[in-house]
């Protein structure tokens, strides 16, 4: 089994690569590669899309990448399991509103807007550890419970149109979407590779997932 982590020049992928490779070794999850090769993405058994930065720049970089068409074909035609991380999750939405209106992939029914905490003392970006609140069961959350914490760094969040696609949230002056899922697509707003045992468990669950 091959898991392809797409490199579209959006963030340092070293820590994500190491975390996925570690869990693949520990669980027999096959090979993990960071790639810019469309053929590798087209034939992968699983695809991971990380990302750091602004929604419009990341969306443009992804569409410029040689992997974009292969990624879309794999998910929409072959139903390959797909994991978006941080901005990689936000790109799953129908549209983003960071700096300018930008189309997303449209795989999750939501839009990305700036976090607006109800408490003035809460700063944006939302940065650091926060406790997950599980909304719906999902195979990627096996062994994860409400109260387990994950590491966040973001100023924008996905506002859901279809609440059934929100798997978990956190509290930060109001609900902030933490995990989304639909069919073979999952998105994590936090960084699982920086979220200690909780994040590593989710990575292992994703590698073992058979939708």
Explain how this protein is built.
The chain has one domain (2-208): Class I glutamine amidotransferase (GATase) domain (Rossmann fold, 3-Layer(aba) Sandwich), CATH 3.40.50. The chain is 27% helix and 30% strand. It is built from six helices and 14 strands. The chain is globular. The two termini are 15 Å apart.
What strand order characterises the main sheet?
Answer: 2-1-3-4-14-13-12-9
What is the name of the CATH class? Alpha Beta
Please name the CATH architecture: 3-Layer(aba) Sandwich
Helix content range of the residues, please? 25-40%
Radius of gyration, in angstroms, nearest whole number: 16 Å
Q: What's the order of the H and E elements?
A: EHEHEHHEHEEEEEEEEEEH
Total helical segments = 6
Q: Secondary structure elements and their pairing?
A:
Elements: E1 2-6, H1 14-27, E2 31-35, H2 38-43, E3 46-49, H3 55-64, H4 68-78, E4 82-85, H5 87-90, E5 95-96, E6 102-103, E7 110-114, E8 126-131, E9 133-134, E10 149-154, E11 156-160, E12 166-171, E13 175-182, E14 185-188, H6 196-208
Parallel strand pairs: 1-2, 1-3, 3-4, 4-14, 5-7
Antiparallel strand pairs: 5-6, 7-11, 8-10, 9-12, 12-13, 13-14
Helix pairs in contact: 1-6
């Amino acid at each position: 089994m091959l898991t392809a982590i797409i490199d579209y020049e959006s963030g340092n992928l070293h820590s994500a690569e190491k975390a996925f490779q570690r869990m693949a070794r520990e669980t027999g999850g096959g090979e993990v590669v960071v790639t810019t090769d469309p053929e590798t993405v087209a034939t992968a058994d699983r695809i991971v899309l990380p990302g750091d930065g602004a929604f419009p720049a990341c969306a443009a970089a992804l569409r410029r990448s040689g992997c974009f068409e292969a990624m879309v074909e794999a998910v929409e035609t072959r139903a390959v399991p797909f994991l978006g991380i941080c901005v990689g999750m936000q790109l799953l939405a129908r549209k983003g509103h960071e700096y300018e209106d930008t189309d997303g992939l449209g795989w999750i029914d939501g839009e990305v807007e700036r976090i607006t905490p109800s408490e003035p003392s809460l700063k944006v970006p939302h940065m650091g550890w926060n406790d997950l609140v599980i909304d719906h069961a999902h195979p990627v959350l096996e062994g994860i419970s409400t109260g387990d914490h994950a590491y966040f760094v973001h100023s924008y969040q996905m506002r859901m149109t279809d609440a059934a696609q929100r798997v978990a949230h956190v509290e930060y002056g109001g609900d902030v979407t933490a995990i989304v899922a639909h069919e073979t697509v999952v998105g994590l707003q936090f960084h699982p590779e920086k979220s200690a045992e909780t994040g590593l468990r989710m990575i292992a669950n994703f590698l073992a997932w058979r939708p």
